Amino acid sequence: MALTHEQKVTLDKLVSLCKRRGFVYQSAEIYGGINGVYDFGHLGTLLKRNLRSTWLSSLSEVPGEIILFEGALLGPYALWKASGHVDHFADQMVECRDCKHRFRIDEIDLEKACPHCGKKNWSEVRQFNMMFQTQIGAVQDQKSIAYLRPETAQEIFVNFKNVITTNRLKLPFGIAQIGKAFRNEITPKQFLFRMREFEQMELEWFCKEENAKKHFEFWKDNRFNFYLSIGIKKENLRLRYHEPTELAHYSTCCTDVEYHFPFGWKELEGIAHRGNYDLSQHIKHSGKDLSIYDEETKKSIVPTVIECSVGVDRLFLTVLFDAYDEDTIEGESRVVLKLSPKLAPIKAAFFPLTKKQNEPMYKIYEAIKNKGFIVQFDESGSIGKRYRRNDEIGTPYCFTYDFESDSDKKVTARDRDTTKQERIAIDQIELFLEKKLI
Ligand SMILES: [Zn+2]
Fold it and tell me: What spacing in Å lies between the alpha carbon of 122 and ligand 1's midpoint?
């Protein structure tokens, strides 16, 4: 019986593929690594870059103005005090007194023994603030305390006046940001799913409170459709509406786009109505005006925020899970990443059939590379091996220069998903790729 997608793709297989092919490495592995911190190799870096640019271009297609922002990673004590993170950004934690392992209270049954050492000797429950604290300058006092940001949004709120003034913005509008954030997770897990250092892509959409519900609905649908547009299977996606008891006290509605990971349905992106809580908090704590003048009502208002937030790394994991497949081609089993061509790190590979065809094929490869395509030249091993190597990293097309190419000026183009081959004219390769890679 054929295996289902869920049976084929496991976290272990994906972690191993990522390491084997240079997508993701454990950070500082030769020193034992840091749990929940990863480095990205060549293919991983290319895939991340494609995820970011696809996200940005999806935003450029919506009505209304969206401008870009890139905030600092370090923020002063006062900022994170005002935002509520110093006092409230904490997990409840217990420690096993015997083996010193720490657990989040929501992932452990205190009636039972420690899953790590089998003894039952729990500490009292403690609050554990998840921000990474550091200090700025040589003097150590409360004024020198700074934090690595646990979310990207706050600097947008703190800079709200500067941003609207310099860009002459009118409601509604959006501010988009891609950048790193840091959380000292007690138990980072599931590879890229929950990391201590990660990257967010966030849109803060500012609007009037009376229209907020309408905007919220728009963004919920827009974000769901974004995932379909990058090729994620519809049956692996769903929307989950938060119960009133799950909402932050300032939020009136929140919906998650969830993905069906091998370890269950989990949040991929959150779409949250944040009210005007953040701006109001910073107005209160800084004493500065962060309102916007509304031409229509001739009043200054503190706008409502709809936030759409997704982790680049979590999306990275999602697209790999979704694209991963195993099948059998001419009696030989293969691993294939059926990534959307938009996301594939390498767009095409160029093979000479034998050493004799190296020179003409290399010239074709160079010409395509010089047009700005991310492509590779692969001359080692049998053609079958070269196909498998490229299937495994999601390369949508492979071109082979063979014995007839000199005379008919054509190469073989092979499709990753169907493995079908067609002969195309050498001078048509660029056009072929342009059409297929949209
Ligand atoms: Zn223990």
Answer: 8
